[in-house]
Structure formats: C-alpha cells, structure tokens
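To: structure desk
From: M.T.
Subject: fold request, one chain
Message: Could you run this one when you get a chance? Sequence is below, nothing fancy, just the single chain.
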Amino acid sequence: MRYVIIGNSYAGISTVEAIRNLDKEGEIIIISEEPYLAYGRPLISYWMGGDWETKHMYYRDKAFYDTMNVNLRLSTKVKTIDTKKKEVVLENGSRLGFDKLFISTGGTPFVPPTKGLEFAGVSPLTTWGHAENLQRLGKNAKRVIVIGGGLIGLSAVKGFGAMKKDITIIELSQRVLGLALDEDAGELIHAELNKKGVKIRTGRTVKEILGNDKNEVRAVILDNGEELFCELVVMAIGVRPNTEIVKDTDIKVNRGIVVDSRMETSVKDIYAGGDVVEAYDFINKDNRVLAILPLAFEQGRVAGSNMAGRERIYAGGMGLNSFPLFGTAIMTMGITITKEGDGLEVMKTKGKDTYKKLVFRDNVLVGVIMIKDTNYGGIYTSLITKQVKLTDAEKQMLLDGNLLDFEAQRESNMPWSSMNWVMQRPIKEHVTGVR
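Reply: Done. Structure tokens follow.
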C-alpha cells in the first residue's frame, strides 16, 4: 500500500501518525513545496520578531520521519492530480502513483490586483519563508504598512512591533478582527493597539503602492487619495483554500475541497484535511472552511485512520481562536457576531479593559468572546462542544466567572461529580455525504 500525502503541516503529520498506528509496513511519501521540516506556523511572527529561536520552531524533527519510515520530499511542487490513473503529477513532469492520497495544501494568501505589487518590500506573511524575507527587509525599514486587520495582519503587527517599527494597519471594515469581534470588543483592541503606538485606518483600502528609482517601496496611496510613506507593505487581507492542484479534476470544490464525514473527497481513495477543505461545522450545521489548527490535526487523524482501513468519523468543529496581542489575551469561539432577530440570546459584561460576551441558542452556549480575562476557556469550549442545556442561573454564573458555583450547581443535578461531567456529554454524531 502506498500512501501519498501532499502537505507537511498539522493535518499531514497527524495523517502519518494515524496511518502508522494501523499500518506499520505501508509506504508513506510526504510531498512539501516548502524546504522545512514540520514547523509551527503560528510561531512565525514570534520568530520574525526575535522572540523564538529557530531550533524551537519545529514540532516534528528528522527523527520523527525516520521513525515513521516516511519518504519526505521537500521543496517539491505538485502541479495536478490524475485521478483516473491515481497519480500525482509534479511540476517537473514526473508522476508518482498512489493507492491512497491525502491533500493538505493549506491556504494561500489573497492578494488583490494592486498597482505596485512588484516592488521590493511587498510580501504576504503566511509561511516561514515569508517571515524570513520580511525579517531581512525589515532590518533597514522604519515604517510598515499592514493591509488587513485579521489574524495574519495582527501577527505581522506582533512581529514588527517586537522589531520596534512604526506600524499602520489599513482595514476595510470598521475594526480589526472584524469577522470575530463585535463592536465593543473591537474598541478595546483598538485602544490596546493605540497604546503600543500602532495606528489604525479603518474603512480604507490601498489603491496603489509607490516605488522609488531602486524599485523599492516608498509609500502607499489610500482610496481617499491619502499618501502614507513606508518601506514595507504586508499583504494580510486574508487566506483562501489552496485548491490549485485539484483545478480541472473531478474532485469537487466549493470554496474549499468538499469532504464527507470520513474526510474523503468526491473521488474514492482521495482524502483531504486542514485549511484547504470544507468540513462539518457543528454549530452552523453545514460544511465550511474553518482554518483552525486543532481541527486540521483532528481531520488528519480521521483521514489517516480511514485510509488505513479503520472507520472513523469526524464529529465536526467550530471557529476558535486564542490570540495574545501585546500582552492582551483574545479568545473567540463559535458564533460571535449577532444581530436583532437571529434568535440568539446575548449576555455580556464590559470593564475598563476587559470584555466577555456569551451567546446562547435555546439555552445552549454557542459563542464566546473574552478579552484579557480568558480563564476557564477550556470549560467554555467544552460546554459548546457538548451542547449542554443550561439554566438561567448557570448562564449568569458563566458570565460572572463563578465557575466553582457553576460546578457545584451541576454536581447537585448530575449523578457524577466534578467538571468531568462536561466531557461525558458526547457531541451528537452527524452523518453527511459529499455535497
């Protein structure tokens, strides 16, 4: 049996581990476009800013690949997949046959057509290679423009903040992290960024990037005509599933590669996982792209088991982010943006620099925002995952952070003791086919 895995990050690595748990003899080949062993992508901004040593970036070393008997092919680009012949076609024209294939090509930066992208000093920030390039360019730069205020944009802010650069965020929406934070939370994060000297221009976008006679970035022009001088521009508008290699194949793609509850695509023996797929979201009850690290790892585990012959079902995931920004902890999960008439109950509390918002549907916790005080985040996550019905008193205890009283309340109504009750409520299994 030959297993071929495209991608060497979290989903790909967990696929290897799941396969080897069941099949000790099958041939495993990993193909990666990048030149690195498996590394922690969330750490690249810390590395760029000098807070993380290179040797600590790897979460699987060479001994892992040797122990797992993996043929690792780094700096190798896949062009397409021949699903009929069951072959991976490499960019150099060579072909690699497979019995089972796993696709975990991750996401690719979205860079809108903008005049001036060709100038030195313009770069995305999604890979270690990008971080190396920006760190090198940043040595002689004083001013940095970050286009986009999402997670990638704020990662760039962390990295360049550690390098003591003058930073301006350009964000089209009215606040940073606009897909995860509501207006109240956004105000607090903007205040924290301003305290650190980070400037934020909301409701704006970059119309053009200007260069000097050395073809280096010298400024950007906003859509209102304003000119901002800079030496670096980070394109951090967003990431899209990297589905290029399945283009013009019979593997079904919507926004991402479509998979079923076994992480199998529309083509038999071809599986996918991680940021490239649309997988089950148990809160919204549909398939969607959820670019979350733990979900990628679990999806790989499910796919690897099924590839090696043991049936395993992916129970689903939800949006979940935990993000430290200049010492301010930000945690979001599930449904965080609400509006009148959506049938959701919202409870929230706001302090001088803290904020908590809980969202309930039919007395079940389905969303959380926590700023600064993120204690007991795991319990909130478990409550959402296990879809536990709560009383009004219990909801108030959660909002107030009275977890000891909350635990006592649950113990009085449950046959078991301690917070173990949270983990004993299994999520409802879903059955979903390829859509």
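Reply (cont.): The chain has a mean pLDDT of 91. Let me know if you need anything else for the meeting.
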